[in-house]
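Task: complex structure prediction.
Instruction: return structure tokens for all chains below.
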Amino acid sequence: MINPESYRQGEWVNIPEEYVILKYLEKTGLGPRSYFVDPERFVFPLMIQEFIEAACFNDLKPLSEEHLAAAAKAIALLNSQGITPENFPFRKGYTRYSYLTSVKTWQKRLKEIKKSEQPDVLEWAQKIEKVIDGAKKILEKFEPLLEKAPFSFNFDGAHCGNTYWKNNKVIFLDWQKVSYGDPAFTLARFLTSVDKTGEVSSANKELMVQTYLKRREVPNFAQLVDQRLFERQTADLVWVLWNYVKENKIEPVEQTINIFPRYKRVKKLLEEY
Amino acid sequence: MKKPTIQEIESYLKKHNPLSLSGASISLISEHNHLNYRVEKDGEVYCL
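Output:
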């Protein structure tokens, strides 16, 4: 069931919707089997699903080529599933036909960050505001390629913490964040979680892109991945500060979250683009 | 809203008996975005 104490609980699919998604995916083995859902007889909607005993990718780091290739294959299979806005009601903001959807989310988060009274948070908010302005201009230039892309079903929670290794196969858990649109989204999401600072190695990216393309043909896929990685790395920079504020932390920002390496990387990307 | 207690879940399982899980043992396994419980009865294990 959704954690009613989570400050993010209103953002995602609800339990009956998650049940529908897991039933749809059952034949792929990409998620746990779901056996039962009760939307209303308990105080919260609940679902009973398969109990998965597997190793979390976070515990398998550094990830081997075998793990990365298996994740790329799983993501290609996931992206090929016929779950679309026509047959599944995606949350507003979880259809990704344009990068500007993300910019709106960053601006909303920045507004919430600025409510903080901590001087170091406000200092970082100023820096991030400039980054968002710069990133928006770059993302506008990226739009034409995304508009031509074959849209796909995505699992937005496909980071290493939700990716598990069972019988030499990848299985994803915690399916509360799904979306529709950019075919590069899930792969980029995964790649930014391989290193804890969000750094993406060229070798890992190349391996995963090439493995993906053997399973699923997407024109300009490598470029779409680069574009989405830029968007995700900017998104993650905004998110770490927003999450710090939402969790009511009071320790100095730079000592508590990995904000500086993320900021440095995005600044570098802004200069390159 | 507050998280449900194990006792509330036990009462639910007893009353509605989904998958014949009335009387199952329940333990909390994670509590991030989802609350996940391990539910076991007669050697069968599920995640709730």
